[in-house]
Amino acid sequence: MRAVRFHEFGTAEVLVVEEIPEPRAAEGQVAVQVSAAGVNFADTIVRSGCVPIPLPFTAGFEVVGEADGQRVIGSTMGGGYAEHVVLSAALPVPDELDDHTALAVFGNGAAALGIVGAARVQSGETVFVDAAAGGVGSLVVQLAKSAGATVIAGVGSAGKVEQVRALGADRVVDYLQSGWTENVGPVHIVLDTVGGSVATAAFTLLVPSVGRIVLAGTSSGEPPNIEPAAVLSKSVSVIGYASALLPPEQQAELRVRALELGRAGDLKPILGQVFPLDRAADAHRAVESRATVGKVILQL
């Protein structure tokens, strides 16, 4: 079968399509013929060598496809960029969702639910969401709005403003513009997946004593610079969130909820670029450029 692998860590060029043996399912596992695989920023982090893994490695952590005549979706510890994969568990895809939409709400929707839940978003609060045009951020905007919050969405280019406004954001700002924080004002909550200078600046917007910031990613490539003394003086909460570190049963619960919200039309993901398997390197470049919107997908 065809699979996208890398034999060394590095830039997107290390991704190559190879013929490898088809995996065989053991008892209790699910053999899936893959129709599409999700491409996430985490995939690029692993490829670049930030996570110690044995090489060669087959990329990809979430897939949708067919098993025993049924459409299913699931996650794997690698191996997703391939024509066939073996999963330890799989969920049925609701009939109301096509494969790409299911992929867009499965992992990213679960992450968005976890982020909003960690922040304990309440009706009447003001929330700032960065990377609001991304696969996770666009769903966070929708969930925060449905919780009754006023949502100020942050994007990294003027070309993304209208797409995010259509999601229901009350205001949209370009955080690559100088002085962008002046257009945001005090907020009760910051939901961050960018890190770096964006998260550092957003932290200063928190309302003292009740403010909280959820740090859930570093797509900028850098962590935020938040001094403990500043946290103390403002009496605010800094909350770390990583989906991969949740107990398996909690991850499963969030994924089931995300698929149900997608099925009901309460989560409407933005579907981004679709690449064929042999252009996985281009998909990684697109994600790393931060010019993409919504969910990036590999079509098999």
**Proportion of residues in helical segments:** 25-40%
Shape: globular
Q: Quote the average pLDDT.
A: 96
Number of domains: 2
Please identify the structural class as seen in this structure. alpha/beta
> What's the number of extended β-strand segments?
16
Straight-line N-to-C gap: 11 Å
Radius of gyration, in angstroms, nearest whole number: 19 Å
Summed up, the helix count is 8
The CATH homologous superfamily of the largest domain? NAD(P)-binding Rossmann-like Domain
Biggest β-sheet description: 7 strands, mixed
The H-and-E topology, N to C, reads as EEEHEEEEEHEHEHEEHEHEHEHE
Here the CATH topology of the largest domain equals Rossmann fold
From the 3D coordinates, which CATH architecture of the largest domain would you assign?
3-Layer(aba) Sandwich
Low-confidence segments = none
For the record, the CATH class of the largest domain is Alpha Beta
Beta percentage is 25-35%
InterPro entries: ADH-like_N, ER, GroES-like_sf, NAD(P)-bd_dom_sf
GO molecular function: mRNA 3'-UTR AU-rich region binding; NADPH binding; quinone reductase (NADPH) activity
Protein name: Zinc-binding dehydrogenase
Keywords: NADP, Oxidoreductase
